[in-house]
Description:
The chain has three helices and four strands, in the order E-H-E-E-H-H-E. By secondary structure, the chain is α+β, with helices and mostly antiparallel strands.
Amino acid sequence: MSAPDRPLVGQVVTVFRNRLRPEHEDAYGDELAVVAELARSMPGFVETKTFVADDGERCTVVTFADAASHAGWRDHPRHREAQRHGVADYYAEYSIAVGQTSYASSYIHDPDA
């Protein structure tokens, strides 16, 4: 079993929390599919995962290899367009926290060990 490629010191992690306006959930899903695929195609992309809490809050964690890769994603014209759509149409509220990993550790259980 190999160690994951995350977390690593120096990676940039974005935590994007949001709540959707119910009337726009379908349109949001369509745009999210396009933007998520774009993120996966960007240089330095590591991973993205979205979780939905019992109370409806969504949390997306996006990781890029370094600050330059993250900046490329942050400033991509199609991503900027999606951000504008989010504010205008999709989100009831959101918050974003971005940080560079200063410490990293991981563990994978090996049942054969």
